[in-house]
Structures are given as C-alpha cells and as structure tokens.
What we know:
The protein has 302 residues and is an alpha/beta fold. The chain has helices spanning 4-10, 23-32, 56-60, 73-83, 101-113, 126-132, 143-156, 168-196, 201-208, 216-219, 243-260, 265-280, 291-296; strands spanning 13-17, 36-40, 51-52, 65-68, 92-95, 117-120, 123-124, 135-141, 157-164.
Amino acid sequence: MRSTSDERTFSMDIGFIGLGNMGAPMAANLAAAGHNVTGFDVAGATAEGVALAASGAEAAAGRDVVITMLPDGPILRRVAAEILPAMKPGATLVDCSTVDVESARAVAEQAAAAGIGFVDAPVSGGIGGAQGGTLTFMAGGSDAAFAKAAPLFDIMGQKAVHCGPAGAGQAAKICNNMILGISMIGVCEAFALAEKLNLDAQKMFDVVSTSSGSCWSVNTYCPAPGVGPKSPADNDYKPGFAAELMLKDLRLAQAAAAASEADTPLGAHAARLYETFVETEGGRGKDFSAMLPRLAARGHGD
Ligand code: NAD
C-alpha cells in the first residue's frame, strides 16, 4: 500500500477537454484516483470531482497531461491550435477521440514543434467501459509520451497497447471497427436468413457460437433478441454503440483506405449500408446491431 507522500508524488495535474458521454466518466475516474483534474466542455458539461475552467486554454495551461475526448478530427485540430500554445513545455497531450489518421499525425507534429509530447489513444469499450474504467486504449506516439500516459490508461481502462508512432492508435481503431462493422452485417444477414429458413434463433446461436462462424458479434453482442448474453437487442436496440458512430468509423476507414491505396471492398460496402440505414431508414439513435431487423424486414435483392 502506498503512503500519503507517495500518493502526492504520483498525483498529476490533468486538463480534460470534452466532457461528453465518454469524457465525463473518464475524467471522473481520474479524479477519483486522486489526480487533480480541471475540465472544459463547450456545452458546459461537468464531471464528478472535476474543477471547471472557463476555456480549453485555461484547462490546459500548466498541466502535466492534457486529455481530449472530442467528436472528430476538425474539432481536435481547432482545440489543439488553441491549447498547444497554452501548455507548458514538456507536458503531454493525449487525444482519446476517434479521428482520422491525418489529423492525429498533424496534431502530433504541431505538438512536437511546441516541445510537447503527443499520444493518439482512441478507445474501445463504449460508455459502459468509460464508466467502469475498463476501456481498451490503442496508442500511437513516442515511448516517452506513452510512458507518461500509461498510468492514466491504467485508471481509465484495463488494457493499453502501444501500437507504434503517432497515428498508429487511430489506424488500429479503424481497422478493428471495420472488422466489427463487416462482421456484424454478416451475422445479421445469417440470422435473417435463418429466420426465413425457419431455423430457431437459439439453435442458430448454439451452433454458430461454438463453430467456425463464432465471433464477437455472435458470442458477446448477439443481434437476435433473447439469445446469448444480454445485449442491446434485448433492450429494443437502444445503444450500446450507435449506428451513426459505426458509420463514422467506417467512413474514417474508407478515407484512410483511399489515402493509402488499400483495397477494402467489404469495408466500402459496409459503409454504404450503414449510411443508408442511418440517413434514410431511421437507424440513427439505434444500436448498430439493429441491422438485423432492417435486413429481416427485406426480401432477396431488395
Ligand atoms: P459526445 O458528443 O458525447 O462528447 C463530445 C463532447 O465534446 C461534447 O460534450 C461536446 O460538447 C464537446 N466539445 C465539442 N467541441 C468542443 C470544444 N471545442 N471544446 C470543448 N469541448 C468540446 O461524444 P462521446 O460519445 O463522448 O465520444 C467522444 C469520442 O469518443 C468520439 O470521437 C467518439 O467517436 C469516440 N468513441 C465513442 C464511443 C461511444 O460509445 N460513445 C466509443 C468509442 C469511441
């Protein structure tokens, strides 16, 4: 057990910008662990145990580490341009938002020019993981910057993988979520087909979850109601992980594929399907596994 003086030694001054669904519980967990956390959100959001600043620059000034948890790359770039000049040299900026690889690399360069470390560290685990401190962090940046952020990842999450230089965390995130989007559509197609073949969904689960078709989308997050562990399908497809967030990640994957000349035909198709679902078929606000009722309601070739 650590002494009080040890705890003082390990306590950091942290700025936290973006106190939304994910950021607020992450900031609260850092404060609960004994860190001195100052937050800012344009919408005036708050978090338990977190002092509020009047601007992003004020939240960032003089802190050892500044964490951002923002909606997208353009907003990250704007916030970085505001806070980097306010940060103290030698401090570290940790961006946990999901953004495009180019934005992560651009902010890393600006940070380096200002003598500030940078880690891109998008997360998986969703709002439940943020609340429970069980997120997985996928991190990109120098060894020194990662080492500075690692004790904070330990508080906010259960696992942090240092994937490589700046941008590598975002690359890992969009590759993982491209697999997830494609696999969820595949699983939903199979359950919709099973229903039309009069194959009971529970029997389908019993076979597939222990056969070569098993995957996270079947075993842990089954899109068929009443089957497998509890999932958003059992709660009228309330998210969970919203379809529009999956669309965001699939679009980021397609932008990265275009920029890097990668051939991702199923990723492209998944992005188009979620785009139609979210923008014209009422999928916005539903869990991404609601692709199952969407498919089940349609006929062959619709
Ligand atoms: P959110 O919209 O709830 O939170 C974003 C917050 O940023 C909002 O409160 C907003 O007011 C604030 N903000 C916007 N511009 C700002 C600015 N200039 N300065 C300060 N604050 C500003 O979104 P979220 O669900 O918390 O997601 C945050 C990030 O995490 C996104 O990049 C998302 O893709 C990613 N993510 C979300 C989930 C999830 O399940 N929600 C899972 C994994 C990753």
